[in-house]
Design brief:
transferase, 39% helix, single chain, methyltransferase, seven-stranded mixed sheet, SAM-dependent_MTases_sf, two-stranded antiparallel ribbon, Small_mtfrase_dom, Release factor glutamine methyltransferase
Length: 289
C-alpha cells in the first residue's frame, strides 16, 4: 500500500469507530509511524510504503479504534511547545492546562527566580510549562504514582534545564507536607485529581484508560483543593501565589475555598471554550506590609 492509501484507510476506520477528528488523528499517526506530514503525503504519498512502517501504522490505527488514547500510541504529546513523554499510568497533557501555567506566569512577573512546587505533577506539564514562560523559575515536581514517575523524570531530564526536579510524595499526607518549611515558597501550582468519584464511570472511554489516581477527586471532587489549602498554603510566602486547574463547573466552589482560606485577589480563569478552568489567589501579606 502507499502512504496515501494508508492515510485514507485510517481516516475511514477512525470515522467508523466514532473518533471525533479522524482526519487529524490519521495525519498524526502518519507522521509518527510513516514519518510523513500532510505535505509529505502530497509529495511522496503515492510511492510504496515501507512494509514495517505500514504494519506499525495499521497496528496503531487498530489500537486507536479500540479507544486507546492517541497520546499513548504516539508516546508523546505537545504542551506549550514541549513534546512531553506520555504513556500508560500517567495523565495525558491537555491544552486546557495551559490556562493555569499562563495565569501563574503572569502573577510571577517581576519576581526574580521564583521558587515553588508543582503538586500532582504527572508528566510535569505545569512545572515545565512554567519554565518556558518564566525562564528563571525553580520548580520541584511532586508525584505519588510509581507508574507516572518514569515519565516525569524523563521529561524533567529533557526539558528541566537543571531548574526543575522530581520528588515522589503524597500531596494528601501531613507528614510529607511537614518536610517543607513554612513561608518558603513563591508559588504553588497544581492540576490535581478533580473528578467526583461517582462521575468516573461516565467519562469517555479514552479518559477511563488514564489512571484513576490522577482523576479521582473524592466524593465532591474537592478533596485535593482542601488538602492543598490546609497542608500546602502555609508553605507560601506572604504575597506568594497559588494556581490550580479545576473542572468546568467547580469555579465557584474552589474560589470559595480559596477565599475561606484567606487568599486575596481570588480569580477564576477561563479556557479557550470560555469555560472555568483555573483558580488563582495571593497569600495575604503579613501585618504591616
Amino acid at each position: 500500500m502507499t502512504p496515501r492509501q494508508l492515510y485514507l484507510q485510517a481516516k475511514k476506520t477512525l470515522h467508523a469507530a466514532g473518533i471525533d477528528s479522524p482526519g487529524e488523528e490519521a495525519a498524526l499517526l502518519c507522521r509518527h509511524f510513516l514519518g510523513l506530514t500532510r505535505a509529505g503525503l502530497a509529495l511522496v504519498g503515492d510511492q510504496p510504503a515501507d512494509p514495517g512502517q505500514a504494519a506499525a501504522f495499521l497496528q496503531g490505527v487498530e489500537e486507536r479504534k479500540g479507544r486507546r488514547p492517541l497520546q499513548y500510541i504516539l508516546g508523546e504529546w505537545d504542551f506549550l511547545g514541549l513534546p512531553l513523554r506520555v504513556g500508560e499510568g500517567v495523565l495525558c497533557p491537555r491544552e486546557d492546562t495551559a490556562v493555569v501555567v499562563e495565569a501563574l506566569a503572569q502573577l510571577l512577573k517581576g519576581v526574580p527566580a521564583p521558587q515553588g512546587l508543582d503538586l500532582c505533577a504527572g508528566t510535569g506539564a505545569v512545572g515545565l510549562g512554567l519554565l518556558t514562560l518564566c525562564p528563571q523559575a525553580q520548580v520541584q515536581c511532586v508525584e505519588l504514582s510509581p507508574q507516572a514517575l518514569p515519565y516525569l523524570r524523563e521529561n524533567v531530564e529533557r526539558f528541566g534545564q537543571g531548574q526543575v526536579s522530581c520528588l515522589q510524595g503524597d500531596v494528601l499526607s501531613p507528614a510529607f507536607a511537614a518536610q517543607f518549611g513554612d513561608g518558603s515558597l513563591d508559588f504553588l501550582a497544581s492540576n490535581p485529581p478533580y473528578i467526583p468519584t461517582g462521575e468516573l464511570p461516565t467519562l469517555q472511554e479514552e479518559v477511563r484508560r488514564e489512571p484513576a489516581l490522577a482523576l479521582d477527586g473524592g466524593g465532591d471532587g474537592l478533596v485535593f483543593y482542601r488538602a492543598i489549602l490546609q497542608l500546602w498554603l502555609p508553605k507560601v510566602k506572604p504575597g506568594g501565589v497559588l494556581a490550580v486547574e479545576i473542572g468546568e463547573d467547580q469555579g465557584q466552589a474552589v474560589a470559595g475555598l480559596f477565599q475561606a482560606a484567606g487568599l486575596e485577589h481570588v480569580a477564576v480563569k477561563k479556557d479557550l471554550a470560555a469555560l472555568d478552568r483555573a483558580v488563582t489567589g495571593t497569600a495575604a501579606a503579613a501585618a504591616g506590609q
